[in-house]
Every structure is written in C-alpha cells, then in structure tokens.
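I am writing to request your help with a piece of structural work I have in hand. I am sending you one protein, given as its amino acid sequence and as whole-number tokens for its backbone shapes. Kindly check, if you would, that the fold set down in the tokens agrees with what the sequence suggests. You will find the record immediately after this paragraph:
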Amino acid sequence: MTTEPGNAARVFLVVVDETEEMRVALRFACLRARHTGGRVALLHVIEPGEPQPFRQVEELMVAERRAEAEELMKKMAADVVALSGQLPVVHLRDGHSAEELLALIEEEPSISILVLAAGTGSEGPGPLISHLVGRLSGRLRVPITVVPGGLTDEQIDLLA
C-alpha cells in the first residue's frame, strides 16, 4: 500500500537501545511502515558519561561511545531495510534520552507516531515509557504506540 500523492508518508519513530524489547518495537514499526506506505526513523541518544579528571580520557571515552552508537545504528538500519524495504531516517544525538526525544519530535514535523516496547521485567514498562506517558505526555504532539515487549515475531507479524 502506498500513500496518495501529496500526502506525507507516516513516519514511525523508534528509540534505539540494546534491549530485547527495542527489537520488538523496531519490528512492529517496520511492518506497520511497510503495510501503510510509511517510513521508519531511528533515534539513538548517547548519554553523557561520568566526568573524568583528565580531558583526554574523557574525549577518548566520548569517541568510543560515538563509534559504538554508529555501529549499532548501521546494524539497526540494515534491519529496517530488511523488514520495511526502505532506508530509515537516522538521528544520532548526544544528551539525555527523554529530552532529546522530545526535541526531535518538536523539530521534525514528519514524525507521526512514536513506537516503544514495554519492558518485560518486574521493574515496569521502562524508564522512558514511564517518563513519557506520565509527566511528559501533554508535551508530545504525536501518539505513542506501546507494544508489549514479550511479543514473538509471529505475534508481531499478525498485529502489523
């Protein structure tokens, strides 16, 4: 299915980290994008590390975190292409996840849906979901789709 001429494609934003539930959100977003003629956007935020007493050590640690983030995003982009058939829009930012996520949504009018997966542990849905659907939900201009983090690929395929 494709979008009609003149209509902007629906953009599904996924926050990338290295959790298992993120892969559930990614698969769901990719399949929804494929079935609706939309696209996937990926956001990864490089959180600040602990301040180091020596500037050179801190700069080296920052460079290592950035290189690891770029590698992760390359892998996730390849997964998006395999699942959705399109290259994703990739956003790599430095800062705190919730703040950078809100800023990106405000800056990018093409983003239409935020897709997150809930954690499966006893700690609850996860800190980002708790933060967004709690205190910050009124600041979002897009709906949030929260996918159960324990879904199998087959279950996601049936939903998307």
